[in-house]
Each structure stands twice: as structure tokens, then as C-alpha cells.
Specification:
CATH superfamily: Indigoidine synthase domain
Number of helices: 13
Strand content: 5-15%
Shape: globular
Order of helices and strands: EHEHHEEHEHEHEHHEHEEHEHHH
Helix content: 40-55%
Bound molecules: pseudouridine-5'-monophosphate, manganese (II) ion
CATH architecture: 3-Layer(aba) Sandwich
Distance between the termini: 15 Å
Structural class: alpha/beta
Length: 309
């Protein structure tokens, strides 16, 4: 099961109980709450995602850091504290120890949340989009620690792919090199977050959650395996026109360059700029794909738990 738990890991009682009884649990990240969506939409979305996971028969566990403790499963008021976003760090693998030791609050990225899943023993994690290789990484070396986490931690990440703010081809190349399977749910093409597909192929296509569960079981039966991506395209009716999103991203990237935004601050900056340049249409798309991913993740955790018993 799970490894020795660090003293700063806190599992909410319903999460602990579900894990002990082999019931399905789905982790949710908090960077999207604190740094990805504006208030008060962020809190509404965080609560809606938990409800959707519960409707699908799984226990939701939103992950975040409060007062230097890594919580797996947050109460409403704890989620509110992160959503208000005062002094909430964006926490991945490299700054986790610092935030914990200083007793701070933090929202976990895909990498940070995967670490919490691995420590707690949670197999399924739902996010919007993964981080990856930024354009120009050949010079800047800006590659998200999400890819490190995917190549080391045994967690299935349900996502709508990666945004075109990233170099999607290079991101998929790193995943291939690190041996992370990318599975397309009803698609041959890796989804690009606001749009249902990109020009790049997935490793394997499945038509149903049951089929996805079979691939995940095969992957996890291999003791050398680490993470896996289940790529769930944005629902067609919520997708944005390609031209709108290309234009918004180009403007966002030009602004980031002009202002010298780098490192940890770059992804939230680009997301905010895309929101402005798409006249907030990106927000509706973001919510729709998060909800769709929560439904898929809840159902998947349910199917996986049935096959374990
Ligand atoms: N991509 C999105 N929305 C997000 C993020 C990525 O479309 O909110 C967040 C996720 O939490 C992801 C993080 O793990 O940004 C990646 O940040 P970085 O590039 O600094 O690793
Ligand atoms: Mn980055």
C-alpha cells in the first residue's frame, strides 16, 4: 500500500476510511483554485468538482497545504482559505519542503498533488491540464516538474491534455522518453485543453472508462511503471475556436516575454493573459473540461475499485 507517511501529511477522516476499505478515492488539485481561476468562480468550481466525483461514487480529496501541513481532503472552509488566495504559494516538488517548514499555506500543482497521492495511496487524480515543456525550453530549461512527477509516481492523471501555451510536441516527447503512457479517451490525438485535439498522437486509444481501467491495471501490474495520463478531450460544445485561442496565446506569450516573466510565475501569468485576450471565454471552457474530467475520474476510480475486490 502506501509508504511511510511523513509527519506533515494529514488525511481527512472520510478519505482515510475509504482508502482503508478499498473504496474509490479521487484527488483534486488546488493550484487551479488558488492561481488558475478568478474569485468567486474558483470556489464554486472546487465545490462542483467534489460533488461530481461524489455523484460518480468516489470520495473526493482536494489537496492543499495549510499551516505547513499537506492535507489530503479539505473541508469547505479549508478550500475557502485557499480560494481567497492570501499568501498561498504555488507548490510543486521543489518548494514543498520550504512551505511546510515555514508553516505556510500552499496550493498544490499537478506534481505536488501527485506526490500527495503517492504518499496517501490514491491512484486517481483529476486536473484540468498538465504542465510541460515551455516554448524556448532549449535555452530556458523551463520544463514543468509535472513531467518529473509523472515519470516517478504511480498515479493516473485525468486531464484535458496540455495547453498550447506549452510546446505540446516536446511535452509528449519527454513523456515518451520517460515511459509515461498517454491514453486517449475516444481520441487518437492528444487534446489541447481548449480544443479537443492537437496534431500529435496519443500512445493508445480507448473507447470507454472500462477499457481505460484495463490499460491502467496492465500498467500498474508492472513494478517498474510510474504515472499514466488519461487524456479526456474538452466536450465539443464547450471547445473554443482554434483561431481565437491561437491569437490569445500568442498575445499572452508576447506579454510574458516583454515583462520578463519566468519560472513558477509563468504558467499563472499566461493563463490570466489568455483569459483577458479571449474575453473570458477561456473560463467557461476551463470549467467545462474540469467538470468532464471529474466525471471521468470518479467513474474510473469506481471501476478500478470494483476490479480490485
Ligand atoms: N495548466 C492549466 N491550468 C493550470 C495549470 C496548468 O491549464 O492551472 C497549473 C497546474 O497546477 C500545473 C501547473 O501543475 O500549473 C504547472 O505549473 P509549472 O509550469 O510552474 O510547473
Ligand atoms: Mn512551467
Amino acid at each position: 500500500m502506501s509508504r511511510t507517511r511523513p509527519p506533515w501529511l494529514r488525511l481527512a477522516p472520510p478519505v482515510e476510511e475509504a482508502l482503508q476499505q478499498g473504496k474509490p478515492v479521487v484527488a483534486l488539485e488546488s493550484t487551479v483554485i488558488a492561481h488558475g481561476l478568478p474569485q468567486p468562480l474558483n470556489l464554486e468550481v472546487a465545490e462542483r468538482l467534489e460533488s461530481i466525483v461524489a455523484e460518480e461514487g468516489a470520495v473526493p480529496a482536494t489537496v492543499g497545504i495549510l499551516g505547513g501541513e499537506l492535507h489530503v481532503g479539505l473541508s469547505r472552509s479549508q478550500i475557502e482559505r485557499l480560494a481567497e488566495g492570501r499568501d498561498v504559494a504555488k507548490v510543486g516538488l521543489s518548494n514543498l519542503a520550504g512551505v511546510i517548514a515555514s508553516g505556510g499555506d500552499g496550493a498544490t500543482t499537478v506534481a505536488g498533488t501527485m506526490l500527495a497521492c503517492d504518499l496517501a495511496g490514491i491512484e486517481v487524480f483529476v486536473t484540468g491540464g498538465i504542465g510541460g515543456v515551455h516554448p524556448g525550453a532549449g535555452e530556458s530549461f523551463d520544463v514543468s516538474a509535472d513531467l518529473t512527477a509523472l515519470s516517478e509516481l504511480r498515479v493516473t492523471v485525468v486531464s484535458a491534455g496540455a495547453k498550447a501555451i506549452l510546446d505540446i510536441g516536446a511535452t509528449l516527447q519527454v513523456l515518451e522518453t520517460r515511459g509515461v503512457p498517454v491514453i486517449g479517451l475516444g481520441t487518437d490525438r492528444f487534446p489541447a485543453f481548449y480544443t479537443p485535439s492537437s496534431r500529435w498522437s496519443v500512445d493508445h486509444r480507448v473507447e470507454s472508462i472500462e477499457e481505460a481501467a484495463a490499460v491502467i491495471r496492465a500498467h500498474r501490474a508492472n513494478p517498474h511503471s510510474a504515472g499514466l495520463i488519461l487524456a479526456n478531450p474538452i466536450p465539443a460544445e464547450a471547445a473554443l475556436p482554434q483561431a481565437l485561442i491561437d491569437e490569445a496565446i500568442a498575445q499572452a506569450q508576447a506579454e510574458a516575454e516583454l515583462r520578463g516573466i519566468r519560472g513558477r510565475a509563468l504558467t499563472p501569468f499566461l493563463l490570466g493573459a489568455v483569459e483577458i485576450h479571449s474575453a473570458s471565454r477561456s473560463l467557461d471552457a476551463n470549467c467545462a473540461l474540469l467538470e468532464s474530467n471529474a466525471r471521468v475520474g470518479g467513474h474510473l476510480a469506481q471501476v478500478l475499485s470494483e476490479s480490485d475486490t
